[in-house]
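# step 3/5: fold
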Amino acid sequence: MPKYVVRHGVMRHLGIFSTRGGDTFGRGMQVIARTSRGLELGEVLCEATEHSLASLDSPKSGQILRGQTEDDAGELRRLLEQQEDELKICTQRIGELKLDMQLIDVEHLYGGERVVVYYLSEQRVDFRQLVKNLANEFQTRIEMKQIGVRDEAKLLADYGDCGKPVCCNTHLSEMPPVSMRMAKLQKATLDPSKISGRCGRLKCCLRYEYDTYQDLQKDLPPIGSEIVTKDGKAKVLAQEILAGRLLVQAEDMRRVVIDGADVLTVLKRGSGGERKRPGNKNAPQSAKKEPGNAEEASRTTGNSAVAATKQGPSEQSAPPSPKKPSSEKSPPDEDAPAQDG
């Protein structure tokens, strides 16, 4: 008996569905299926092969009852009109109860087993009275589902900046985490208005090629590395990851672009362009130049006269005052935390 991967519901759930008898279905066919929520309209994506099953994480199960008929299409049009009325009623009831929540959408299942209310809220909402009122109004089970801003875009958004339908409303079943590091690695603009999607968060497409960029970057020496090429020593200034090239500075201060394969050896690997905290690098150097800072003071604990002598004759007669520091700057203390200027 064949099984199929079926997408169903406004949240575009994916599941492995069996058939009755020897019925077969093709890709893109609209079907009426029984899910864990009730009777729903679904879309057949493909046959449930081992390859397709490997790409699904904990898929739901169900059964395809039949292909969509003309009567089913007419019933679905009626339900869509009914959902618009239910959305208005929900908005009105939320306003009457003065609940701190934003109504996003209402989903009425094909079989009428339940009405799912999707909403946004930054805090927990006591909607028990709302559920009672809606159950009396619609005469069916009410399910309240709190969602996030990405799920809101999944329900309401249409097209993205690229001109194509948004990914979360087409092929994405789960929204992957996206970070600013991914945009920096791909040399994308850091303007929030250009790398943010319809949900206001970073675009999901920044995740698609991130793994490829990481694999290609491993073959190139990091920024700041000291390398040897056929023309001599050089320092890596920048990377062109997709092209596999490097911008380097030669010993005669010339800047040239070379292929990554022209690197004969890496003398010293760089930090990859990561910034270090100011003050950390100079702290050991200042300790070497001023050997009498903390070490001298610790050796002369309890002997203020010797400590004053170490500081200089101008400060020997005047006692130190924390409120009014002297105009002459003393060398920085090794044990004091570095401060950003």
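# step 4/5: annotate
The first strand starts at residue 3 and ends at 8.
# step 5/5: archive (pending)
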